[in-house]
Design goal:
With 220 residues, the protein is of the alpha+beta class. It has helices spanning 23-43, 67-79, 109-120, 133-151, 155-166, 172-179, 183-193, 195-211, and strands at residues 2-4, 8-15, 48-52, 56-61, 87-94, 97-99, 107-108, 126-130. The chain is globular and about 50 Å long.
């Protein structure tokens, strides 16, 4: 067991209507989730991931300023598979945790808050909370708006936006080549999906989390 006093982020999610998926669809979903977990670990090797019962997964994020980006990547990756796919996803930032070898047995405020958040999701699909009241006041409602925006996206728009998040320096020409389509089509897709506002929100989240005195934020 590793006891951590500094803030961590915990992402927890489950796939919507998993029992309605065929075996092939379910396998495709698992491959996509594992691919995102691998990508996150390549960016931040200290992060820990778990897939429970297949339809539920969890990540512990140490680079907490990237928590919104990683959460969004999970959602976009799953929705990019087609209209049959979506997930409910909750993420939380908090200090003090006991990380155990079996991730589902780990304890701490971030685990509690993210789990509670997931349980409260009914019509919404994404939520954020923290033991830092400053972050909650700034981003809880913004994440609800973001949730609505992502819900309305097509699978193709999700695929394009996901690639933009994974390669922020990629050009429209390169992206179009990867997706075997015209740059003008990619440009229209990004505009229709509200990419620039989404990207701005992710940047603001990173800035505010880094600027907040997270070491003492439990009483903020």
């Amino acid at each position: 067991m590793e006891s951590i006093t500094k803030p961590i982020a915990v992402i927890i999610a489950d796939i919507v209507d998993s029992t309605d998926l065929t075996t092939e669809q379910f396998d495709t979903y698992l491959i996509k989730v594992k691919a995102i977990q691998k990508w996150i670990s390549e960016q931040s090797p200290s992060c820990i991931h778990n897939i429970k019962r297949g339809d539920e997964f969890q990540s512990v994020i140490y680079d907490v300023h990237n928590a919104l980006k990683y959460t969004l990547m999970y959602r976009l990756a799953i929705k990019s598979l087609g209209k049959e796919f979506d997930c409910r996803i909750s993420f939380a930032i908090a200090s003090n945790a006991d990380i155990r070898e079996s991730l589902p047995e780990s304890m701490g405020e971030a685990f509690i808050l993210s789990g509670r958040g997931l349980n409260t999701l009914k019509n919404d699909k994404m939520t954020f909370t923290s033991d830092c009241q400053v972050l909650v006041e700034i981003f809880k409602l913004l994440v609800k708006y973001l949730d609505r925006q992502i819900t309305e996206l097509t699978s193709r728009q999700c695929e394009v936006m996901l690639l933009m998040l994974q390669s922020t320096d990629i050009s429209l020409k390169q992206l179009a080549a990867n997706l075997q389509t015209a740059p003008s089509t990619i440009s229209k897709s990004l505009k229709a999906s509200g990419w620039h506002l989404v990207h701005e929100l992710i940047q603001q989240f990173e800035i505010k989390v880094l600027a907040t005195n997270l070491e003492g934020h439990g009483n903020a």
